[in-house]
Design a protein that fits this description.
There is one protein chain. The chain folds into two domains: about 300 residues, Adenylosuccinate Synthetase, Chain A, domain 1, CATH 3.40.440; about 90 residues, Adenylosuccinate Synthetase, subunit A, domain 2, CATH 1.10.300. It is α/β, with parallel strands linked by helices. The two termini are about 15 Å apart. The longest helix is centred in the first third of the chain and has 18 residues. The protein is globular, with a radius of gyration of 21 Å. It is about 35% helix and about 20% strand. It is built from twelve helices and 18 strands. The strands form four sheets. Strands 1, 2, 5, 6, 7, 8, 9, 10, 14, 17 and 18 form an eleven-stranded mixed beta sheet that branches. Helix 4 packs across helix 5. A hairpin with a 7-residue loop joins strand 17 and strand 18. It binds guanosine-5'-diphosphate, 6-O-phosphoryl inosine monophosphate and magnesium ion (MG).
Amino acid sequence: MITITSKLGQVSAIIGAQWGDEGKGKVTDIIAEEYDVIARACGGANAGHTIVVDGKQYIFHLIPSGALHEGKDIIIGSGMVLHLPTLLEEIKVIRDSGVDVVPRLHISHEAHILFDYHMAMDEVFEQQRAKIKGKGIGTTMRGIGPAYIDKAARTGIRMESLGKNLEEELKDKAQSLSELYGINVDIEKELSQIKEASEVLGETVTDAIELIHDYLKGGKNILVEGAQGTHLDIDHGTYPYVTSSSTTISGALQGLGLPPNALNTTIGIAKAYCTRVGEGEFFTEVEGEVGDRLRERGGEYGATTGRPRRCGWLALRDLRKSAQLNGLTHWNITKLDVLDEEEVIPVAVDEDGGKPVYKELPGWKASTKGFTSFDELPENAQSFIGFIEEQTGVPVGFIGTGPGREEMIIRV
Ligand code: GDP
Ligand code: IMO
Ligand code: MG
């Protein structure tokens, strides 16, 4: 077994360095084996994190991706917005595969509940944007923006209210949503969903800040699983085509109540190329035949919505910004194998009048699928990795060579 905690330290974080879907789930699952606690910090079920174990695929939306490892403590942090039926369904799917997460699940009492009406609002807001601007953001329709609106407006309902009678509060919400947006809130359904969740999850709601600090003091190793990607960050991303939470390391620490000096390492996850779902600038996007080829080889269809992902090449500008914002100590470059058949691999090294200036690195035209050793990689693949290291100043500690749990080169 690999021993990487000694290199990554007691607290390590996994952060998407592009526009999400970089492969955070897979590396979390691999590293989680050596950690005691795995924590999600922010976002909600807009996330779709895929892992493949013994050929079987699992997609996590709210539960951290390392949850299949028995005996690990699992934290759902204060920064998250939780659609409870989705959470219950996820728990059920994991239980069906023989793993019970409830006894080791700890949900912050400060996390916000995301109701069905938030999803209805998401739809209305997208329609409004399309009407005014000609296009929406292309959200995942999971109610994320509206749940964070309620949080920021201080009208949200938090997990600490799970056992309480929320009827009056929901009636007030229903009235204002009906007046403002013509949304019809099914109060009975919302209440019964809350009741069911409270029966299953009541015991798991806790002061997660105290808990995580107890873990720290007790010397437990903590792995933080970021969601979304740095360029979807509400402050630093390609606004307004972003999500509604802070997706950088700072947001993850805030979402868990961890101080910055608790953190030892931050791994930035980036594909060997680049993808994006939804609207918004994508400097190095390639459409047509090349984009289609990357999409098909990379299986680039959304884990949450099934939407085809837009595909393009790496841009050093975007990687450098991610390294800067997150203080990255390592890269995990994922999906190297997807480029196995490319003749040349363009990387945007500069820009000219808003257009990328590419350097074309030679392809390796050989299979790297399933490789676990750097030395065995074709020379041009090694050079490609070396180029990323040299140009970003961050070492590549992990290289993905396939979707499976075993398909990773680890060189930390
Ligand atoms: P996340 O949201 O960052 O966890 O990423 P997603 O799960 O949404 O998307 C990543 C996709 O790439 C999933 O289908 C993974 O199974 C797959 N994947 C991850 N790493 C690799 C890799 O190194 N090679 C290949 N071919 N697929 C990978
Ligand atoms: P993971 O964790 C990819 C994108 C949406 C949309 C924008 C806003 O799997 O990497 P939202 O529903 O959050 O209001 O949508 O953000 N988006 C993601 N794209 N991966 C994700 O998560 C995403 N979460 C949100 O496609 O463009
Ligand atoms: Mg995803």
